[in-house]
Structure formats: structure tokens, C-alpha cells
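A reminder from the course coordinator: this example appears on the midterm review sheet, so study it carefully.

Given structure:
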């Protein structure tokens, strides 16, 4: 089954921020959709630059509870930018197989993956859409 057949079934929108966006903007983006587990970092042309996972946002905000990671002051946390939180720009295309999305999701511990077409983020496929597609195919 192809990504185009299943993506945006449960997630009609996706959240993006620029690389210089402060952590407050990243949090506001992810908070708009309670089902969102990632924010996509895009440049001025809407090309994907990276992915910010929800667990990384929580890790930064809760760093005071993890002494092994060192204490971060409020000013350190507030000075964090999207580019400081993001991982590499992993993605799939509408024509890719859902199994390709599953492989990337499992390998890089991602529940939401950006869908990119013609160099721009056009949506996302989330873990529930992947599961639904794999269940339907099997």
C-alpha cells in the first residue's frame, strides 16, 4: 500500500516551524494538535530541515529532573531554538510504500513522519495510519 492512500486519514494537518523558532513557538505548535508527536522544521521554501520529536521537547523541559544530563536553567531552556532540538530530515514521499515509512519509524523511533513531495512538506503519516494500512494489507 502506498503512503498517498493512507496519510492524513487521522492527521489532516502537520505542524512546522523555522530553524530559529524559540522553544516557546515549538511548544505552541505541538500543543495545537493533541495527537501530534512531532514538529517539522522547514526553511523559507518549506523544504524539510529536520524533525523535533515530542520526547526531546519533554526532555529539555524536564531536564531539571534528570541530574545525569545536568541542570539547565530557565534561561538555557528558553534560549533553545528549533535547530537545537531537531534530528535529521527523515521523510517519505506519497509514492513510497507504507512499509518504507514503518522501517524509518522503527529505526529512528518516530511516530510521525513528514511526507515530502517536490521538496516540500505536504503532510505527515502517523503511527496509527501506518498500523491501519498494514492491518488492511495483511
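Designed residues:
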Amino acid at each position: 500500500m502506498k503512503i498517498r492512500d493512507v496519510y492524513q486519514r487521522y492527521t489532516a494537518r502537520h505542524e512546522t516551524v523555522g530553524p530559529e523558532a524559540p522553544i516557546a513557538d515549538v511548544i505552541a505548535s505541538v500543543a495545537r494538535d493533541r495527537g501530534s508527536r512531532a514538529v517539522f522544521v522547514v526553511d523559507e521554501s518549506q523544504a524539510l530541515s529536520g524533525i523535533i520529536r515530542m520526547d526531546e521537547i519533554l526532555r529539555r523541559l524536564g531536564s531539571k529532573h534528570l541530574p545525569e544530563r545536568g541542570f539547565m536553567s530557565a534561561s538555557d531552556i528558553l534560549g533553545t531554538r528549533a535547530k537545537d532540538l531537531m534530528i535529521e530530515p527523515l521523510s517519505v514521499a506519497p509514492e513510497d510504500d507504507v512499509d518504507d515509512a514503518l522501517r524509518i519509524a522503527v529505526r529512528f523511533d518516530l511516530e510521525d513522519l513528514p511526507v515530502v513531495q517536490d521538496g516540500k512538506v505536504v503532510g505527515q503519516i502517523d503511527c496509527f495510519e501506518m498500523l491501519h494500512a498494514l492491518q488492511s494489507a495483511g
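The first strand starts at residue 16 and ends at 17. Strands lie at 16-17, 38-42, 48-53, 112-117, 120-126.
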